[in-house]
Amino acid sequence: MPLSRREFGAALGSAALLAAAPATAAAAPITDRAGSGAEADPYAELFQAQYDRIKDPANGYFSPDGIPYHCVETLIVEAPDHGHQTTSEAFSYWMWLEAAYGRITGDWGPFNEAWAVTEKYIIPTATDQPTNDSYKPSAPASYIPEWPEVSKYPSPIDPAVAVGADPIATELSSAYGTTNVYGMHWLLDVDNIYGYGNTPGTGGENGPGPGPSYINSYQRGAQESVWETVPQPTTDLMAYGGTNGYLDLFVKDASYAKQWKYTNAPDADARAVQAAYWANKWATAQGNQAQISASVAKAAKMGDYLRYATFDKYFKKIGDCTSPTGCAAGTGRQAQHYLLSWYYAWGGAEPGGGWAWRIGDSAAHAGYQNPLAAWALANDPALTPKSPTAKQDWATSLKRQLEFYRWLQSAEGAIAGGCTNSWEGQYGAPPAGTPTFYGMAYDWQPVYHDPPSNNWFGFQVWSMERVAEYYYVTGDADAEAVLKKWVAWAAANTSVGDGTYAFPATLNWSGAPDTWDPAAPGGNAGLHVSVKDTSQDVGVGAALAKTLTYYAAKAGDADIAALAKNLLDAMAAKSDAKGIAVPETRADYERFGDEVYVPAGWSGTMPNGDEIKPGVTFAALRSWYEDDADWPKVQAYLDGGAAPEFTYHRFWAQAGIAIAFAVYAELFPAPA
């Protein structure tokens, strides 16, 4: 079964400061300025300017088919390994960007277009997932253990380990009249740089083959960084790779069948719901809700299927799972941890094969939680899913997520990693004394270890901005308590002044939380965080500014509002022709020469003829990088020169700073 994971590194740079005065909280009017498409507000003007740069075809944010690229620049390696791939993350930020545009301008056509392109290209169609009618909820998947090291793969199927039953498949099929899954696959090769192009149903305007292609990469445990991946097509027709396509790099079996498989990134689908919530709220206030009702209904449907991310990977009982055979199979809600885990996935045989499977995930990371999306799916009639149990599932998830934050909050205020119901991905026994959350083991670096998954400050702000939005909407006291402590810590570690700005980049962790007792939460006096270095990354800064803005508006905190404003002004000073960006030095690009593990005796080829064999390097599997205009900078570094510097325009970051301007314009509008 596939295991996808995504990692993000902090970008380093410098920036200048524009001094700003504190603002006061107020409700923003929804008005248009004739002819400009922007409110008469300086931050709405900044939004519009940034929006126009993103939508300018000359700047290269979108493919000819209208798909948002991960990055304008092509030579970039982080979670995707090429800038003109894209992610469900980018699509969800696009939806959010267009929601903000609709609030300011009253034009909801672009929001609907974002959903239309999403359905066309990154939500697999019925053709892309052809054999779901063979899925058996009573036997959702075969157990395959994960391993901490890449060299332990391929991993054998173990039929002796019992799996639980899927309790939501039947009601989903009944609610929507289909056995297909409605969720975004996380990774798309937009320009078909790998050359797979054989996924049925993709291919843009040119038909299957030369256009966008679904791909996957991470499948080999927690230690597999992007530098150790072998990307493969999601539909493996065994046309490329080895004798069995790519399947026997990951799974050991007696025989192999042509098949399809997709992996969902739950934080992106939840962000799509989040964007739809705001779009519906703003459009309703304008009297325009009918214009977007169909798109909002799609978000509700996506939220229905997103519940797969709230179940254990193999639907085993939650809590005290310390051996594969000793951990009992679950029925009903016994296997539901109610958190947003790292992924859910589904797949099946090509037509004629007669089987299909679905899995959740046992590991939950604090950075993926989204209480606003859970609240909206449980409380907003426009976003109520059709399935009869979905509303209650999301109400329970909301409560559980808020408890999760409280459990993981360090003595200083930052939020620690997460937990797992399956230690090391094989229901192993965690070290003695490991704290637990509803019986699931604490993991300071859940899901991936290279680099440690919770060392990036970006996960703090991505998650806390959702908590801040939820707090702004509801005034929930539990959210306020977590935010108050977190904001104090973040503000104390953020500086804006003397021509610079900086906030945390890399975090270090020590200790552990207290075992969770909902009746008597511990104080986590032994759980600590420290800041290793700082960053000026625009996307991270935008999420920090949004968090501070929402918190300040609800709490009436003028000092935090001023910090948000000053930070936005400082980042705005980094504008260029394509967006707002800062230079970053990529010392990690020495890893272009890293070896990608291939088992002894295995051989095959990539579509362009690159050999897949033991000893092959990351760069050798991607020889097309040598044709990139920026490759000489990397080659010079590999030859002993200085680490190369790049100024990247990532879609999520550029959309994020635009949205941050719009949020500030809404919550702290300029006097009329």
From TrEMBL:
UniProt entry keywords in alphabetical sequence: Carbohydrate metabolism, Cellulose degradation, Glycosidase, Hydrolase, Polysaccharide degradation, Signal
Domain of life, source organism: Bacteria
Name of protein: Endoglucanase
Record: active site: 89, 267
GO MF, any single term: cellulase activity
Residues making up the signal peptide according to the UniProt record: 1-25
Organism: Streptomyces coryli
Gene Ontology biological process terms in this record: cellulose catabolic process
Keyword Hydrolase attached: yes
